[in-house]
Amino acid sequence: MRVTICAVGRLRAGPERALCDDYLTRFDRTGRALGLGPALVTEVEDKRGGGMAAEGALLARALPERAALCVLDERGAQLSSPDFAAWLADLRDQGRDVAFVIGGADGIDQTLRDRADRALSLGTMVWPHLLVRVMLAEQLYRAANILAGSPYHRA
């Protein structure tokens, strides 16, 4: 199962980039034996200033074909880490890939949200989109550990 993170904005060198890269590397290592991964990141940037609609069009073009589409949205469902892991395992068992979409500062265009198979919230607080990428990467790693029966997740 391929996992793609499609995100608005470039994650420059710095602590967020280091954390994201670290968690995605860990996810790839842990997930490989479980049929999860690799995790790929596709970044888009609207250099013309077209707003959410332009970002949505760029994100839509970056999505892999036939992948389940999950948008990260504050209005989405809040899953526990074990439920998130079970959802990933279910997609894997169906032979599906998954693409996670992280919008820009203004969110995700409604057209793209309407296409989504799932909307997922990381909580009712609003998070900077660069931190959302790190948090998603950590949850992917945590999900792989839950499915592997590792003690990393202690709930």
Features:
155 residues; alpha/beta; Alpha/beta knot; five-stranded parallel sheet; 5 helices; 5 strands; globular
Unreliable stretches (pLDDT < 50, length at least 5) are: none
Number of DSSP strand runs: 5
Would you identify the CATH H-level superfamily? SPOUT methyltransferase, trefoil knot domain
What is the topology, as strand order, of the major beta sheet? 2-1-4-3-5
Helix content: 40-55%
Kindly provide the name of the CATH class: Alpha Beta
Terminal residue distance: 26 Å
Rg over CA atoms? 15 Å
Tell me the β content: 15-25%
Structural class: alpha/beta
Order of helices and strands: EHEHEHEHEH
CATH topology: Alpha/beta knot
Q: Give me the number of helical elements.
A: 5
Q: Looking at the structure, what is the overall shape?
A: globular
Report the CATH architecture. Answer: 3-Layer(aba) Sandwich
Q: Outline the biggest β-sheet.
A: 5 strands, parallel
Q: Tell me the domain tally.
A: 1
Rounded mean pLDDT is 94
